[in-house]
Amino acid sequence: MDYDKKMAWFNEARFGMFIHFGLYSLLEHGEWVMYEERIPAAEYAKLADRFAPVNFNAVALADQAVQAGAKYMVFTTRHHDGFCLFDSKVSDFTSTKTAAKRDFVGEYVEAARKAGLKVGLYYSLLDWRFPGYFEPEKYPESSQAMVEQAHAQVRELMTNYGKIDILFYDGGWTAQADLNPERMAAFWRARELNDMVKSLQPGIIINNRSGTLEDIDTPEQRVAASQAGRGWESCMTIGDFVTWGFVRHNPNYKTVPQLLQHLITAAQGEGNLLLNVGITPEGRICNEESERLNAMGQWLRQNGEAIRGSQRCELIGHAVTGQVDINLQGPWTRKGNIGYWHLFRWPGREAVQILVDTPVRKVTLLSTGQELPFNYDKASGKLRIYNMPFTPPDSAVNVLRVEFESEPKRRSERDLAEWITA
Ligand code: H79
Description:
Elements: H1 3-6, H2 8-13, E1 15-20, H3 33-36, H4 41-45, H5 58-68, E2 72-78, H6 104-114, E3 118-124, H7 131-134, H8 140-159, E4 166-170, H9 181-188, H10 190-200, E5 205-206, E6 216-217, E7 231-237, H11 256-268, E8 272-278, H12 287-303, E9 332-335, E10 338-343, E11 351-353, E12 360-365, E13 374-377, E14 382-385, E15 398-404
Parallel strand pairs: 1-2, 1-8, 2-3, 3-4, 4-5, 6-7, 7-8
Antiparallel strand pairs: 9-10, 10-15, 11-14, 12-15, 13-14
Helix pairs in contact: 5-6, 5-12, 8-10
């Protein structure tokens, strides 16, 4: 399928909700606990006997995503510990064959669809239960068995749950921390794997973590724009960067303004934010994360126009590859001839944007519709916006909607000293 057509919903969405849930959730030491604490596979497997999250409610999760203003979700079908939240013919280490006796992936997919959300599946290629993952040369058969398992399980996920919109591979690197894409692709037979995925799910968006480039880049715990025309998605936790799985006592949750600033920074570079929730042992989203998501949703209901389907804006923050640049007040997004100035710091009565090369027609405060007087001086390229409220109407981020005569362009300077004698 044509790339731009395939990517249309993704680029309209800009915001998704990531869900980390698995056996590790029971221990509350993060999703890496099996490896970090070197828990032998047989001992770790006992967790499955008491993994029966009575409060896991996929409908509630989908509701939460809708409340947050997310347009899609990505769910951990299986993390590095190898425990499947779906039924698998090639593994007994699944939630359907142990205490829970539930196919959480099936429940999730159905709820997401019903809520009108696009459906994403996360799948970790590596599986810590295989010695061949850590020592492929010493245990070549185990290593091969792990690769076979990945192919078989990805096939199951792409076959048994209807239309899947996005596939988030993870864990393609080797235990020796080899991140070379060609070697990763060769190890996982990624070309063959992804040909199979695309034949089963035409139009699916696949990330870049199996070794082949596929459709989107995936900066983790940071926002970084790819080159224009290439889709990308930054994934991030609401709490500490060290854990995606739930931990009970976490003093380091990001604030709502910080979270919105990450979302806006992604939107400025034509990319998405995939914001994670760590599900509690009982199967819920904790209050700290829920409150923040709800506040983001409230903001998006008033300001979503500046985010959904955003394009790069030349004025400031045109987000060159691998970089995000902002001015003191904050970055611009754009849609056609409309620029959206996201004020991360409220400038008080007057806002000034320099190097504007395109005449301005109208300025409003996006959330209230209040029209603001302005002066645009073509000669200097200075846009002044007056009579703004002394205190910021929104306590997090305020957006000025600036209608230009044509697509806003940045004025070039004759030399760096030009402004001094203007
Ligand atoms: O699911 C979440 C994390 O558990 C997972 N990705 C997100 C979405 C993740 N797994 N690992 N990492 C993130 C960090 C990767 C660290 C690595 Fe390495 C450093 C991989 C290669 C070098 C650790 C050290 C593993 C091998 C050597």
